[in-house]
Amino acid sequence: MHPFLSDRQHLLYYLSGWLASGAALTGYLRWGGWVNAAAFALPLCPVFGFTALSAYYVCQALPYSQRAPSRVAGLFGMASLLSGGMWWALAQIWGLALQSLVPGWPPGFPGAVASFPVFLCGVVLYLFSLLIHDAWIASDNARQENERMQAMRALAREAELQMLRTQINPHFLFNSLNSISALTAIDPAGARAMTIDLAEFFRYSLPASSRGTTTLGEELGLCERFLAIEKRRFGNRLGIEWRIDEAARTCIMPPMCLQPLLENAIKHGIGGLAQGGVIRIEALVQGGWLRVTVSNPVASGSATLPEGAGVGLKNLRERLALHYDTRASLNARRDGQTFLVEITVPRHEETAQ
């Protein structure tokens, strides 16, 4: 269906343009009297306007990929001349009808004097209609291509997010199973308890990781289950300190963002210290931003960025970029014997999806 006919507003704009053309033709034919000129021109132009809708299909018959200047000029020129002839014939029929139906109609008006100008007017108006429809089709094609590219980018982004998510659980599962294996020989009861804790963690984490977003409160709940597993492994060597702003618990963020940071803190921090240490998790709301910081002690003389920690941070940084574009940041730094990672994301308080 023609796009102008399927949209009432566009159709009104289109007919208004043809009525304006009728007003211009009325002014040209005013020598026969304003009333007579208006009676002839104003009905004629909108009727021809519906005929000129065929310009849409003429433009569609010549795809942009197959266009050459000579083909466009030939097709548009021939279509305009044929339509000008139709316009002239329609004007002649309408003029004869007015002479027979309207008493006192000026004999021969508009007559031969206006024949060529009317024909030329039809050619020009149809050519103008062709140009309008061609621009419309080009704009619509560009819009559809833009929508297609946006859809493809969204699909690619979702696929990349899914790939990054799948890198989290297997890595953690591998480490946890190694821990359970180590406990089996020295503490069978602890190994059984850790297995139950691991099952509980995955029971809650799998639904969360499949969603696009979660609340910080839910994310912290997963972190507590993860740390309960690691606490069985490290015992008193692992201390946990929470500093959570209550207003931050309802903030929205991507799922499974904090667990990789805690895993890094244990593997590259606490695990390398004979006396262990304390992992601090802080979250606060500052204006329109949610800031979450995970800090842990590191051995003196170790690298600024613990070896192996960069992969997890790179993974998380990419996930944040895909989710927030440039509006989120992840900063990692060493301050003396403390390693800190700070996540900053826009503050949103909505129901998690």
Automatic annotation (TrEMBL):
It holds the Pfam family His_kinase. The chain crosses the membrane at residues 12-31, 37-59, 71-94, 114-138. GO terms for cellular component: membrane. One of its GO terms (molecular function) is phosphorelay sensor kinase activity. Keywords: Membrane, Transmembrane, Transmembrane helix. The keyword Iron-sulfur does not apply. It comes from the Bacteria. The keyword Transmembrane helix applies. Residues 159-238 form the Signal transduction histidine kinase internal region domain. This is Signal transduction histidine kinase internal region domain-containing protein. It comes from Paludibacterium paludis.
